[in-house]
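Here's my example:
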Amino acid sequence: MILIVDDETRLGEVTAAGLQARGFEAHAVDNVPAALAFLDENDVRLVLSDLRMPGASGRDLLNQLQVARPELPVIIMTAYASVRDAVALIREGAFDYVAKPFEMDDVVATISRALKLRDAEDDNRRLRQELRDKFDFGSLIGTSAPFQQVLKQVTDVCDSRATVLLHGESGTGKELIARAIHDNSQRRDKPFVAVNCAAIPENLMESELFGHVKGAFTGAIAARDGRFSLANGGTLFLDEIGDMPLALQAKVLRAVQEQTFEMVGGTRSIKVDVRFIAASHRDLRKEVEKGNFREDLYYRLNVFPITVPALRDRPGDIPALAAHFLSRHSRFMSKRLTGFSKPALTAMEAYRWQGNIRELQNCIERAVIVAQGPMVEVGDLPPYLFEDRPRLASGAGAALPADLDAELARVEKEILTRALRECGGIQARAAERLGITERSLWHRVKKLGIRITRSTG
């Protein structure tokens, strides 16, 4: 839709008709307030506005759109055309201008150029967003000292050929660290191939890694390349390598050391050029001591070790990570959420996050689904965040809460919820039981995001 804004009503209508005759959808209004109202309700791709109009001018409209809709191209029509006017308008953000009286073909040509440029910019934004969604760099957000150390190590190692071994609990984002190393290396234009050693059945793992020739085993009706071949020229990420069968580790050691292997059932050696990154949530040194992991493979992989911290060891990064996931899930679900209430954020910062960033992301996704207001409230968070917390106790040996605000919010919510439940959801009766005013109860219920269910019994 092209919106025409011109106080000369007849000229605006004629211009709209001329554009419609050339295949454009167009609508004309005769003042800036009407234009803004139309923009709020319709999908407008370009604005063609007169410069001089009673009241708000075309320049006023341009300035407002530069703030509210900077991606929307604006073409100014003016009977007072001059080089100075043209330069000033374009500097202020107009795509171009046309001088009255104009030829419709000139207007169409200018509009076509503007729309073509906008389409190219939209495509670029879409592609950038697809890349961000494909390579979810959420876990690379953080300013805490432990995580900044990880980022420094990534910066140090990415341009080398060194094999990297990532240590860290499940859900800490080890694969995203591996992708960051690859994407910032000289191999960035080559494949990044990830394989989860814990997710592949033991009897299929050798074929999955190295491929097989036709007839190598029952069901091998055709030759198939493995992950080592697919990663040639790029990076192979061996996730959860601590779960790899001991019998297969010798062949992997040779492939890592010599960049050479044979397919299952094959006799021909295949040479590859692969950069290896491995990861495990297990302590591989202890696995070596237990005899579950080859010592020579461990030392071959442990050239550049990086320990990825657990989320509970970087609590200062929780607000930024939570905001990142809130923005992403809100966009996917077409919900407008502006942030977290103070009690909700405090509760998340106090939780231990045994599942690390993966658990935080799932928590935020669930909160976005259930949230009814403009912000995520305490009541939108999963109940397990408030379970298994140490109760307040007295005495010299009693442990103090790690976060007073979160503990007070939890206790207050627990007491209010119990009172409302025992009073059948009747707020006046619950307030009386608690010795507070009904207005105070209502304020606390809203602050803590408590949902009231009236009893029908």
Notes: Residues 97 and 300 are 66 Å apart (CA to CA). The chain has three domains: 2-130, 158-308, 315-448.
